[in-house]
Design goal:
Blueprint lengths: L5 H8 L9 H7 L3 E10 L4 H17 L6 E7 L5 E8 L1 H4 L2 H13 L4 H11 E11 L2 H9 L3 E9 L4 H18 L4 E9 L4 E7 L2 H5 L6 H11 L7 H8 E11 L2
Antiparallel strand pairs: 1-3, 1-4, 2-3, 2-8, 4-6, 5-7, 5-8, 6-7
Helix pairs in contact: 1-8, 3-6, 8-10, 8-11
C-alpha cells in the first residue's frame, strides 16, 4: 500500500473516496453498454480493400437501423491496422432472433450476406483480435468521435489479482487530466473474449492537440498528479507498471 495514492488506497480498503469524479462525468467516461471490439491487421497491400469492405458493412447495418461501428486507422504503435467498436447494448437484445434476422436479410438483399462478408474479410486480413467490453453510451462516444481526427489507445492486461487497482488507476489518470484541463479518456472494461482487461481511448482534434500535454510546466503536472491521488507525476507510469502484465499504446487517425 506504500506506493498507492489515497484514492487507490480508499478503493482497496473499501473506504469512501473523497476525490472521486462527479457521477455525471464518470458516467460519461464509463458505462455498462456492451461493445464488440475488433482489431484487424490487413494482408500486405490489402488495407484499402479491407476499409472499403467494412464501409459496405457499415451501410448494411445502417439500412436496418443498427448502430454502425466506431473505427480508427492505426498510425503507430500496436500491430493492428484498424480498430472497430460495434455498439451492442447487451447480448440478449443484440442476438434476439428477429433482430439477427434483419441484419442477415439486409446483406442478402444486396448480394453481400453475412457469411460472404466474413469470408471476404478473412481473405483481406492476416491477423485479428476480438473481445467484448463494457463502455460509455454510444451517443456520448459518437459526439466525441464526430469532431475527432486523432486517437490515443492504451490497452492493458492486469497482473493476477490487480484488476480493480488497474481500473482505478485509469480513473485516477482521468482526474489528473481533468486537473490539467486535458481531454479525458473513455474507459472500456473486458466482459469476454481476448486478453485485454481494460483499454482507454483518448480523443483529440489532431496530432497537435494530442501533443499539447508536453507543454505543461512540471510544477503544474506535479500538482495535478497529487490532486488525483498519485505520489507525483513521475509515479503515474510507475504505478501502472506495477499493476500490468503488459500493455500496448497506439496512435490512430480518424477514417472519413
Amino acid at each position: 500500500m506504500r506506493h498507492a495514492g489515497p484514492l487507490l488506497a480508499a478503493l482497496l480498503l473499501g473506504l469512501p473516496s473523497p476525490s472521486c469524479a462527479p457521477a455525471q462525468e464518470a458516467g460519461d467516461l464509463e458505462g455498462d453498454h456492451l461493445y464488440r471490439a475488433v482489431m484487424l491487421r490487413a494482408a500486405p497491400g490489402r488495407l484499402p480493400e479491407l476499409i472499403e469492405l467494412l464501409k459496405e458493412e457499415r451501410d448494411l447495418l445502417g439500412d436496418v437501423n443498427e448502430p454502425v461501428p466506431f473505427w480508427m486507422r492505426h498510425s503507430q504503435g500496436d500491430q493492428w491496422d484498424l480498430m472497430l467498436l460495434y455498439p451492442m447494448g447487451d447480448f440478449h437484445s443484440y442476438y434476439e432472433p428477429a433482430r439477427t434476422a434483419r441484419r442477415l436479410a439486409s446483406g442478402e438483399r444486396k448480394g453481400l450476406s453475412e457469411e460472404r462478408l466474413l469470408l471476404e474479410a478473412d481473405l483481406l486480413t492476416s491477423w485479428r483480435d476480438e473481445l467484448f467490453v463494457r463502455g460509455p453510451e454510444p451517443q456520448v462516444l459518437g459526439e466525441a468521435f464526430a469532431g475527432a481526427g486523432y486517437f490515443h489507445v492504451e490497452m492493458m492486461v492486469a497482473l493476477a489479482g490487480r484488476h480493480r487497482e488497474l481500473l482505478e488507476h485509469r480513473r485516477m489518470e482521468n482526474l489528473y487530466r481533468r486537473e490539467l484541463g486535458r481531454p479525458l479518456n473513455f474507459i472500456f472494461v473486458r466482459e469476454a473474449g481476448g486478453p485485454w482487461d481494460v483499454f482507454t481511448i483518448g480523443v483529440y482534434r489532431d496530432i497537435l492537440h494530442f501533443a499539447e500535454s508536453s507543454s505543461f510546466p512540471a510544477q503544474a503536472q506535479e500538482r495535478a498528479a497529487r490532486a488525483a491521488g498519485f505520489e507525483g507525476a513521475d509515479h503515474i507510469g510507475v504505478l501502472m507498471r506495477r499493476l500490468t502484465l503488459y500493455h500496448n499504446d497506439t496512435l490512430a487517425n480518424a477514417i472519413r
